[in-house]
Amino acid sequence: xxxxxxxxxxxxxxxxxxxxxxxxxxxxxxxxxxxxxxxxxxxxxxxxxxxxxxxxxxxxxxxxxxxxxxxxxxxxxxxxxxxxxxxxxxxxxxxxxxxxxxxxxxxxxxxxxxxxxxxxxxxxxxxxxxxxxxxxxxxxxxxxxxxxxxxxxxxxxxxxxxxxxxxxxxxxxxxxxxxxxxxxxxxxxxxxxxxxxxxxxxxxxxxxxxxxxxxxxxxxxxxxxxxxxxxxxxxxxxxxxxxxxxxxxxxxxxxxxxxxxxxxxxxxxxxxxxxxxxxxxxxxxxxxxxxxxxxxxxxxxxxxxxxxxxxxxxxxxxxxxxxxxxxxxxxxxxxxxxxxxxxxxxxxxxxxxxxxxxxxxxxxxxxxxxxxxxxxxxxxxxxxxxxxxxxxxxxxxxxxxxxx
Length: 404
What we know:
The protein is of the alpha/beta class and 404 residues long. It is built from 14 helices and 19 strands. An eight-stranded mixed β-barrel has the order 4-5-6-7-8-9-10-11, surrounded by five helices. Strand 17 and strand 18 (363-370) form a beta hairpin. Helix 1 crosses helix 2 and helix 12 runs parallel beside helix 13 (307-317). The longest helix is centred in the middle third of the chain and has 17 residues, at 177-193. Residues 8-16 have low confidence and may be disordered.
């Protein structure tokens, strides 16, 4: 199925399979005073059909493998409305980022690419690579549906989005422990980066009050009705969002954790026996850090990921969002909640032993390099460092994920 913008109303052409969609301009308003701050581009199907909402149309397009075409069309709608000086939020799948065309410097400062949180969880390496390319092109990045599931919080520190869009469920229900955990994690991210928080699903005054309580500055929903034309929006009283970008951690996909963690540090020499105990301690920290936590381990070779270690990691994976292990001889499988991935035998990471833990409130990395000394396995010698610096841990996690 293909999509087209309407010329004289919305209709479905059953002969060509072309669906005419209607663009809507949803106001993103300040929650405290209602001032217009940005515009979300929404595409909807015929008003009298099953695709009358933007979400229904997205689901259908994804099911028919036509989501990229729909995303590009939404981007074009934003491009057409060049007279508007407000930021425009355009939601798209990660796979669509490479398909959107080049933009002017003015549009780079204005238009915001909204990446669905599912991509962060389901394809972290691909997502990080696509967002890194988009960032190099100057695009502003937002992540939506934050809080819909704990995993969405896991990769926020890795992406450092300029805009965090809370899931509608965050304001639709009464606050509970899950809401509080998400709020804590978002607050920590905002404090570190200055990211802007937008609440979606603000349909009533109660939702607006809850969104303010969660720390959101802006909201989008039925309380601020969408228009079929941008000219219908009250742009004369607009208060635009703060300038972007907010992210600051450098990209380093080609480096290894030891390259990153060793920089400027004095290494410590130790045997494998101590490193096993230190790794186990980090794993315990990860388990206690909550469901938003990510842990990555590079074990050099598959045989080093022993049954004892595997049992610990399976138990830990039940408590956290993402656990990934890497080594020569490992296959691309997910078992017991753990994602396994192989390393190229020529990859410098084969010489390293790394454990990376990244959560909203705790992070740490053990980075060690094999010296190939010691006869017994427990007496093998390594040079290592421990770091709890968040920027260092984030870069180490990115470097490991880039291999997957």
